[in-house]
Design brief:
- The protein is α/β, with parallel strands linked by helices.
- It is built from six helices and five strands, in the order βαβαβαβαβαα.
- Strand 2, helix 2 and strand 3 form a beta-alpha-beta unit.
- The chain starts with a strand and ends with a helix.
- The structure holds 4'-phosphopantetheine (PNS).
- The site of 4'-phosphopantetheine has 9 residues, from strand 1 and helix 4.
Length: about 160
């Protein structure tokens, strides 16, 4: 069984993330989307909400599971016999930090990282930009799935962003 993990903050999941997860799901038998629980940083959505949105939007793939984690990604992978981390590269500026993390994860946990090149449709896309745009009234439909759009709109209207 070839297993891979797609890790991230996913605050919230975007169409760019889903493009990578769906491509990973074609390359591996089982893909775990791992949502980082970051206790030192509060996001727009709670970890449970992020997991819920990811479960809703990846349910159709069939071989994707969604979990949250804290601590080291290599420990998460080792505990589940996952040998590969799948990450996306949007631009050259992503590369330097991603390379460092990949080398660290290889050295510390013998976990390989496979990079998928982002679909150019989403090369500018990030969760932070989506939140900022949406907060100031920008149209982010087409950048996030419908369920995320609803929750974003609701959160912003409630003024708790
Ligand atoms: O979506 P993000 O915030 O860019 O994702 C970053 C993430 C979660 C992949 C990275 O911060 C991570 O792997 N964190 C877990 C802690 C860890 O293993 N740190 C060492 C990385 S070499």
């Amino acid at each position: 069984m070839r297993k891979a993990v797609c890790p991230g903050s996913f605050d919230p999941v975007t169409n760019g993330h889903l493009d990578i997860v769906s491509r990973a799901a074609q390359l591996y038998d089982e893909v775990t989307v791992a949502v980082l629980i970051n206790r030192s940083k509060t996001g727009m959505f709670t970890t449970d909400e992020r997991v819920e949105m990811l479960r809703e939007t990846t349910a159709a793939y069939g071989n994707v599971v969604v979990e949250s984690f804290h601590g080291l990604l290599v420990d998460f992978c080792t505990a589940r016999s996952i040998g590969v981390i799948v990450k996306s590269l949007r631009s050259v500026s992503d590369f330097e930090y991603e390379l460092q993390m990949a080398q660290m994860n290889k050295g510390q946990g013998d976990i390989d990282t496979v990079f998928l090149v982002t679909n150019p449709l989403y090369s500018f896309l990030s969760s932070s930009l989506v939140k900022e745009f949406a907060t100031y009234g920008g149209d982010v439909s087409g950048l996030v799935p419908e369920t995320v759009l609803h929750r974003l709109t609701e959160r912003i209207e409630r003024g708790t962003s």
